[in-house]
Amino acid sequence: LHHGGHLSWTMGAFHIGCPALRSHPAPGLKPKHTNVVFLKTHKTASTTMQNLLFRFAERNNLTAALPVQACGHQFCYPRSFTSHFVHPHTLPPNIITSHMRFNKPELQRLMPNDTIYITILREPGSMFESLISYYNQYCQSFKRVPNGSLEAFLEEPWKYYQPDEKDSMYARNTLTFDLGGDKDRPAKDEAYARGFVAEVDRVFSLVMIAEYFDESLVLLRHLLSWDLDDILYVKLNMRTPSSKRSLTPGLSSKIRAWNSLDARLYDHFNASLWRQLSVLGLACVAREVLLLRRAQESLMRSCFGGRMPLLRSAAQIKNKDLRPWQPSGKVDIVGYDLPVNLSHGFSSQAHELCLKLIMPEVQYTQVLLRSQSLRYRRSYQLRPQQQTHPIQQPIRTVLLRHPQVQRSQPPPAAAGPASGTRSTSTSKPAAGTQGRTTKIGPRSAQTQAL
Ligand SMILES: Nc1ncnc2c1ncn2[C@@H]1O[C@H](COP(=O)(O)OS(=O)(=O)O)[C@@H](OP(=O)(O)O)[C@H]1O
Predict the structure, then answer these.
(1) Is 342 within 8 Å of 307 (Cβ atoms)?
(2) Does ipTM come in above 0.85?
(3) How far apart are the CA of 331 and the centre of ligand 1, in A?
(4) What percent of the chain is helix, strand and coil (3-state, nearest 5)?
């Protein structure tokens, strides 16, 4: 960043040795898939994924559907998703990734036909421990428990849990609920459980697993024909170690029994993740994971003045745009701050990349809504003949949609890696370009900025 250096990996190296990629007729030239529903489930590393998708949308001038202001930063969760929850300035979308309760028919109405559905699950024990600590002041089922004790809750869950009250979805089978299922279906209803898992399997092309986040990203990269550059991330929305507790095997199995539908989903999709990884080749996956982690470290060092970033409590973070939301005084969610003197050697594009990489969910949603609204207004100014408000027309036919992002041929020598010089352009793709084909080079704007 400071000295015009660049990351040592190249996409060429990234393609070497991976059978699934080698067999492709034109490696690296397949258009990136850009129409994606990512169902953001709770306490599953989904904020880290959302940040990655928001950045991808911005880099490629795509549209991310965002909630109307009345819904907050989520699509009026826990109500079942409807397209009325989508802000009209964020139509028609390529990507949708904010929290919602899944509703396939409504999403189908909103999204292009070739949309790929992705979600993420987490091991029920650690997920429930995270839920009870995060929502201890919100969810009545948890508030009733003396000292918010996990043991006490699991000893007699029906003493504290009331299925129909507000926020009860955080206290039982949260994944099932987020996926649109019936969190309170009795465990003995085998047919329901089997049918629900099969339905999720049918709809979602990829179910990521939080414990194998990087391996899941490798599968995502292959599924969407994205570059390594597109899956770089920094972990977000973490609790401090003092806010966490470890689980005994006894507690873990009680959690699984209480959340039996979620446990079933997790077991099924954890096994299917590993089957998919085996098809890709475990050695190939391990190599990609290694390259991902190296590239990630380089990016972080570039953003944090040569060091790895320090985790900070919200109070320690000077830039309020970077302070993560704190659910209660009983749990600390940590974030990052950029070094104050860092901006001196940065292009504004590089500074923005670093800022967005660590920007918490609520702030990023607001920033993105502002920029997309601006783009929307500009595009309307350019087309004065269009009088009708888009929300009054059938959603899918209103505005021209961004087509798939095409990889361009390598950029001209002066701006490309081969020249030894690097593009100093700081401009993002022009506003109001809906309907144009976005071309991006083999190294996309993310690392080119560095
Ligand atoms: N990359 C990666 N891999 C594994 N785990 C990760 C990752 N990124 C975030 N996290 C952990 O995910 C938890 C936060 O999940 P969410 O962002 O989905 O929470 S939220 O529902 O949106 O509030 C939170 O878990 P807990 O710290 O146990 O609460 C994060 O530490």
Answers:
(1) no
(2) yes
(3) 14
(4) 50, 10, 45
Residues 362 and 296: their CA atoms lie apart, in Å, by 23
- Angle formed by the axes of helices 46-59 and 348-357, to 10°? 160
End-to-end CA distance of the chain: 5
Name residues contacting ligand 1 (CB within 6 A): 42-48, 130, 210, 213, 235-239, 244
> Phi/psi at 95 (nearest 5 deg)?
-130, 140
CA distance 382 to 377: 9
Q: Residue 429 — very low, low, confident or very high, per pLDDT cuts 50/70/90? A: very low
With the most atoms of ligand 1 within 8 angstroms of its CB, the residue from 40, 44, 97 to mutate is 44
Token pair for 274:
């590993």
Give the single-character DSSP code of 324: P
pLDDT digits (tens, 9 = 90+) for 121-153: 999 999 999 999 999 998 999 999 999 999 999
Residue with CA closest to ligand 1 atom 11: 45
Task: Give the contacts of 16 (CB within 8 A, at least 6 positions apart).
Answer: none
Strands 238-239 and 333-334 come out as antiparallel
Amino acid at 134: Y
